[in-house]
Please model this.
Amino acid sequence: MSISTQIKIPDTSKRKKIETVTIMDVDFINLSQKEFVRDHIQPLLMNQEKCYIVTANPEIVMKIREDRGYQEMVKQATYIVPDGAGVVLASKYMKQPIKERIAGFDLMLDILEFANREALSCYFIGAEEQVNKKAVEEVKKRYPNVRIAGRHHGYFSVKDPEVAERVKLSEPDIVFVALGSPNQDKWITNNLDQFPKGLFMGVGGSFDVLAGEVKRAPDKWIKLNLEWLYRLLKQPFRWKRILKAMEFMIRIIFKRN
Ligand code: UDP
Model:
């Protein structure tokens, strides 16, 4: 297990060193969700520091392994969060157990909860226009004190500077980017330098769940580490992703990193 200051963008002097577990060259934080939010996210938001969060499951680890450009982007992340039962399983197999899986969706809700408490402002980029709108409506309902800095659907070129310009003008505390990977990471890393502050997080299909368009697995399935199976049954077109997750496990078992 390696102890490292994985924090590259913000001022690390005020923050505790963070324990990480490295799986296939990806340094995952090894904290419970509660610890992560309490000891890192909340102070960082209160200090108006900048941070970039990647939530990675086995399929994303494989993508990072295979794509040098993606690797370079993820290297800029302040925190890489273990989102996926497979990552936790792999860490146990490697005898460097990660404390718990932190699902990107759950982390997003915890951040919104804190934003609600402190009346922070959030920008929501990504998903189809109707889904984006519905997700933001849901945020307004569930978290009435969150200030909506703005929103934009996700069907634009990540190289187009216009969306970034709009986001910058709104000076948000938090920017959720739901473009799927690696596009959300491309957008964040292309623009991060231009922002003086802000928590930037890639949230994949989370707006679809927030808007009620896609259902998350029932709690029982999540507790049994079977969320991936539920997703596969509901969205069978995702079968290729499961193959990648299987390849990940095979590489871990046979030490073919
Ligand atoms: N999406 C988008 N722009 C695109 C492609 C996708 O905004 O050009 C959105 C899509 O509508 C969905 C999310 O990105 O809301 C990706 O969801 P997915 O479940 O594929 O995310 P992942 O599994 O990659 O985290």
Summary: The radius of gyration is 17 Å. The CA atoms of residues 135 and 211 lie 4 Å apart. Confidence is low (pLDDT under 50) at residues 1-15. The longest helix spans residues 104-118.
